[in-house]
Specification:
With about 525 residues, the chain is mostly helical. The protein is about 75% helix and about 0% strand.
Length: about 525
């Protein structure tokens, strides 16, 4: 059985690697635009595929299904609010970023406020990626693969820590090679190929797991059995004691989603590589449409796993890997393991590529060597990338004691999501708010968010995030009134790509909004 699993795993992985190499081998990647933005040539299928798979790493597959194992369908809020955030990205944020011709979010803030704001934002991003995002991706990836391959039986190693360290370093080293030698184009192409496999594999897990529940019936019979046994798991409205109380959907949870999909460098860097505004908008909105399927393969399997394994006392974050191992036939397990590796590598190498971009253009080029050539900038980014990768591989195994990795990730994200998003929003909506107001919001916002996390404040964490966001916005606006810039500061147009918008974009956005509303109503009613 193991040889069948490994055979299909190696086969699909090799197919993706070969396809990526054939598609990018003749493309230029020595210049900074070629390496960091794929030469501004990405079309909407590659943008959507890369956006989707960068998000759908094991923090989603393992983490969100683990949260569903513990709490049920209330966690689908992360998926459906993402659709609304993507709508705003396509219609409001993306046109402004592409018009400015920037490579990073800090670069945009430097244009709007000044160099100091860009440098502070770069440092915040780099610290968050090195000690937060990248280690979490590696930890959840290692945990998922250990479950899918049942590494204890396969290797004979009974020490969980040793298995975790080994898988973390395997994923980290392979992901580093992908990201640091190929740049964004190889990331986007491999993401798109793996994304197709991920959607197929995720739906296969749902099909076979429902068959495991009702082997003599069809999948609807299986779903009926699970629903009748666990009706409360299908509630979509979180109560006061849940990790996502319903009112938080309109405060911190919403703001975190808006940052994640509209201003998070790791996610939106591939949209900066769009060949035109229309292609970028189509890619972002297509991602929103695909996210509508998220509850089907990112939430439902966790509930099914609870039905099958709740009496075995397993950790929530181990449920998805066990489900895959138990319900999929051996050849399909290997295929899904390859897709899972692709998802892990996608998020890891996307975050690593973004870290390289932030350091190279925001720190190295701005502060260390201002006269550096494109080749020197790219080389500096690769060297820094290896340093970050090694650091994150050392930190990742220390997360083993976390109860819910997905909730933990969102809490950690909020520490820097909130201040950066507030500064971006004010920068886009106003022209006279001064740099010191933005710098104060960045530093003060991070301090307040960390204080709220460790200070055990008597306010729900996501509500607190929403309050801090509102406070930062008000403070910046007041400082803009009291001490405005003498002259309005406009971000100049770069005129690098065709900025003609996609005409159906408003209609597609409206349709996505209505579908999200309808899904909430239908799931709550039935």
């Amino acid at each position: 059985m193991y040889w069948i699993i490994f055979g299909s795993f190696i086969g699909f992985t090799a197919l993706v690697a070969l396809g990526t190499w054939l598609l990018v081998r003749k493309k230029e990647s020595s210049s900074k635009d070629g390496y960091f933005l794929a030469g501004r040539s990405l079309t909407f299928p590659f943008i959507a595929g890369s956006l989707l798979l960068t998000n759908l790493s094991t923090e989603q597959l393992v983490g969100l299904n683990g949260s569903a194992y513990a709490e049920g369908f209330i966690v689908m809020a992360w998926e459906l609010l993402a659709v609304l955030a993507l709508v705003l990205m396509a219609l409001f944020f993306l046109p402004r970023f592409l018009r400015a011709g920037v490579t990073t979010v800090p670069e945009y803030l430097a244009m709007r406020y000044g160099r100091s704001t860009g440098v502070i934002t770069n440092i915040i991003f780099l610290l968050a990626y090195t000690f937060g995002l990248l280690p979490i991706i590696l930890y959840t990836g290692a945990t998922g693969l250990n479950g899918v391959f049942n590494m204890r039986e396969l290797t004979g190693i009974t020490n969980d820590a040793a298995l975790l360290w080994g898988m973390v370093w395997f994923v980290g080293l392979v992901g580093s090679v992908y990201a640091l030698f190929g740049g964004l184009r190889s990331v986007a192409v491999s993401d798109t190929l793996n994304g197709i496999g991920l959607l197929i594999g995720g739906l296969m897990v749902v099909f076979f797991s429902l068959n495991a529940v009702a082997p003599d019936g069809n999948i609807m019979d299986g779903l009926t059995v699970v629903y009748k046994a666990l009706p409360t798991k299908f509630d979509s409205i979180g109560g006061p004691e849940s990790s996502i109380p319903f009112p938080t959907l309109f405060t911190g949870v919403l703001v975190i989603n808006l940052f994640y999909w509209c201003t998070n460098q790791q996610i939106i860097q591939r949209t900066f590589g769009a060949s035109s505004l229309a292609e970028g908008q189509k890619g972002v909105l297509l991602t929103g449409a695909l996210k509508l399927l998220g509850p089907l393969y990112l939430v439902l399997p966790g509930v099914i796993a609870y039905y099958l394994f709740s009496k075995q006392g397993i950790k929530a974050d181990h449920a998805y890997g066990m489900l895959v191992y138990r319900v999929l036939p051996a050849p399909l397990t290997g295929f899904f393991a390859a897709v899972l590796v692709g998802a892990i590598l996608s998020s890891f190498n996307s975050a690593l590529n973004s870290a390289c971009t932030l350091f190279s253009l925001g720190i190295y080029k701005e502060l260390i060597r201002k006269d550096a050539t494109d080749e020197q900038v790219v080389r500096a980014g690769k060297i820094f990338g290896w340093i970050v990768a090694l650091a994150s591989m050392c930190v990742a195994p220390m997360l083993a004691g976390t109860s819910s990795i997905f909730t933990f990730l969102r809490y950690i994200d909020s520490l820097y999501f909130i201040p950066i998003f507030s500064v971006v929003v004010i920068g886009m909506l106003t022209k006279r708010v001064p740099p010191f107001a933005a710098n104060l919001a960045l530093v003060g916002g991070c301090v307040f968010m960390v204080g709220g996390l460790i200070g055990h404040i008597p306010i729900q964490q996501f509500h607190y995030a929403g309050i801090v966001f509102a406070a930062l916005v008000v403070i910046m606006l007041l400082l803009g009134i009291l001490k405005p810039l003498p002259q309005p500061r406009n971000v100049p147009d770069a005129n690098l790509i065709d900025m003609k918008p996609w005409k159906p974009a408003p209609y597609a956005a409206t349709a996505l909004f209505l579908i999200v509303l309808l899904m909430y109503i239908l799931i709550e009613i039935f």
